[in-house]
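Issue 218. Parser rejects a valid record. Input:
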Amino acid sequence: MAHILHWITRASSGYPLMSTLVPLISQAEIADTVARLAQTLDQDYAGKSPVVVGVLKGAFIFLSDLIRQMQTPIQRVELIRLSSYGAATNSSGNVKVLMDLPPDLVAGQDVILVEDIVDTGRSTSVALANLAACGPASLKLCSLLDKPSRRQVAITIDYLGLTIPDRFIVGYGLDRNEQYRQLPGIFVMEA
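Output the parser choked on:
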């Protein structure tokens, strides 16, 4: 039981006062995965200067760690924001674009979309479609995590960190009702 972390939450947050967080991916395994992805991106983007687009809010920690590991000169880092979960643990299926990019920021550029996780694929497909409509020279997807058992929309992940089982996870940028993002590892949340 030493590997189980108990997190006390506020009663007003709408979920149990005590949630059990079971470690799934350690901080060290995340670091190794990020380094591997950065090295592969460096190889594939040698001689280029890509625009890296992160999906808020979940990917902000992964994005930050990834670009600091990359040796390739990055032309620009941009952010978009999508939402389909709200306070729930399952996607509503209704993807809202809360913050988008002006098309001229990616037109004619090599673009890497950085996601924390590809789950149903709905949010990622919206992000990819919006970026593709801007006319990039190339568009690739880099995701730290993949949960293929929940896929509803076909998505090709060009650069994948790890595949995980169908469990609700938090930590390393991933949240439940905006909490747990700051945890250094990735945990399965059990009520």
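Fixed in the parser; the record now loads. The radius of gyration is 17 Å.
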